Amino acid sequence: MKHILFSLLMVTSGAFAQSLPKTEAGVVATVKKQMPETEAFLEKVVNINSGSLNKEGVRTVGKLMSDELGKLGFKTEWITLPDSLNRAGHLVATRQGKKGKKLFLIGHLDTVFEKSLPMEPFTRVNDSTASGQGVNDIKGGDVLVIAALKALNDQKLLDDASITVYFTGDEESGGGAASRIDFVERAKKCDIALAFETAQGLHSVTTGRRGSSSWTLNVKARTGHSSRIFSDLGYGAIYEAVRILNEFRRTLGQEQYLTFNPGLIVGGSEVHYDDKTAKAETIGKTNIVAGTALVKGDLRFLTEAQKESARTHMREIVDKSLPLTKATISFSDGIPGMEPSAANDDLRKQLDKLSRDMGIGPVQAGDPGSRGAGDVSFVAQYMPCLDGLGASGKGAHSIEETMNTKEYPLLIQRTALFIYRLTR
User: Fold this and answer.
1) Beta carbons of 208 and 365 less than 8 angstroms apart
2) The pLDDT of residue 14 is above 60
3) In this predicted structure, what is the pLDDT of residue 7?
4) Do residues 302 and 295 touch, judged by C-beta distance below 8 A?
5) What Cα–Cα distance (Å) separates residue 154 from each residue in 15, 95, 149?
6) For the structural domain made of 211-335, what CATH number should be given?
7) Distance (Å, rounded) from C-alpha 122 to C-alpha 342?
8) Is 24 helix (H, G, I), strand (E, B) or coil?
9) What residue stretch is flagged as signal peptide (predicted)?
10) Contact 4, 120 (CB under 8 A)
11) Is 70 exceeded by the pLDDT of residue 255?
């Protein structure tokens, strides 16, 4: 019974390839034939914990991916990172050809599920759903890339293609800008970037997605007996922190694509925060005016202009201190935004035509506000990009993460043909 689902799909999806040229129909048939081994490989990698901080697990998944890509004629490399970043590194696989566009295919080896969390193995929930840690974000997408390339290689359609596959090891918990130096340099040598984060069904693709950064608010105030608050001791650090956060919400909270989440807030007589563990400790009493407060949050945006405008407004709000309080705010860059562009939409139109040719139907641009930050944004300023090409599913980053197994073969087929058309 193990592969009944995929066998049925091989029959029911046969009509999709009827209008395709013979070569492309052959690719579709090969993807269908290979689905049992594709599923088995997906199950194998899902059952290996590869949380961003589990360096051994990330490397193990990377080795499995590297072995598969090596069989397809790719030259594989492991990019090590400085010890100070505490990350496993990245897998790069390349083939150099003489035809078509040079493609940069993006995935990541890590998941949000660290080794300390309960393991959720690959499980068939029903005839259309599989669950497991990282099954859609992003191991389903990584395996999709390999399955598509395997089908093309079987049909001898990779021989003249120029493709770089770059699977990072720390997308879910980034090691900082230093971790993406090689990533960006390799991408600059290519013409088009395709990223395989979770798909939002068969009919949507990502032409723009928001970036992310972080901010830290520190508040200081006079401290003393609580009976003197609002008078000679002023308002205290906690009231000032609350004023600032409420003004952020009131003045900026309705701007499209802009969000800012205060993920941690502590206040009292003393506050201590450990960046390595993201743990805070505070000391305070009800009859003492709080002398310090700390807030840490993120800021998400679609464009660099939107990010800078928001930061300017936030600084202005911070500067309007309540009496006898003083606040400062600092910002740290994370992942840039992937701005929607005409070039990205032209690429979407090519995918839309292919999808219609296959009988799957149209492909529209998804809402940029519905996506978090992703690796593709690091290279979006240099070339046309699409994201959301991976496995479809729900519940990413939760114990309820699932993958749509009915759509999965069709997404592999479409990716294989998209790569073929772009590199022919």
Assistant:
1) yes
2) no
3) 44
4) no
5) 22, 15, 9
6) 3.30.70.360
7) 39
8) helix
9) 1-17
10) no
11) yes
Most confidently predicted of 6-15, 229-238, 394-403: 229-238
Separation in Å, CA 365 to CA 248, 362, 390? 30, 10, 15
- 229 prior amide bond cis, ω within 30: no
So what's the pLDDT on residue 123? Answer: 95
Confidence (pLDDT) at 1: 43
For residues 352, 355, 360 and 361, what is the CA-based torsion angle, rounded to 10 degrees? Answer: 20
Please write the tens of the pLDDT for every residue from 100-125: 999 999 999 999 999 888 888 999 99
Are the beta carbons of 198 and 391 closer than 8 angstroms? Answer: yes
Q: What phi and psi, each to the nearest 5 degrees, are found at residue 295?
A: -130, 135
Q: How do the domains of the chain map onto residue ranges? A: 4-209+338-423, 211-335
Buried b / exposed e over 312-336, threshold 16 CB at 10 Å, is: ebbeebbeebbebbebebebeebbb
Asked if residue 6 has pLDDT above 50, the reply is no
The Cα-based distances of 249 to 242, 304, 314, 317, 320 in angstroms read 11, 20, 10, 11, 15
The confidence score (pLDDT) of residue 18 equals: 54
How far lies 404's CA from each of 194, 234, 253, in Å?
21, 57, 34
d(CA 384, CA 330) in angstroms, rounded, equals 32
Domains 4-209+338-423 and 211-335 share a fold: no
pLDDT in tens, 181-201: 999 999 999 999 999 999 999
Distance CA 123, CA 46 (A): 10
Detail the DSSP E strand segments found in 116-187: 123-126, 129-131, 162-168
CA distance 346 to 266: 48
pTM (global) more than 0.90: no
| Tokens linked to 263 | 């993920």
Which 3 state secondary structure label does DSSP give 245? helix
- The yes or no reply on domain 4-209+338-423 and CATH 3.30.70.100 is no
Residues ≥6 apart with Cβ < 8 Å to 105: 145, 163, 164, 165, 166, 193, 194, 195, 196, 419
Mean pLDDT (the chain, rounded) = 93
Beta bridge partners of 394: 402
Render 169-203 in DSSP notation, one character per residue: S-SSS---GGGGHHHHHHHTT-SEEEE-SPB-SSS
pLDDT over 60 (residue 11): no
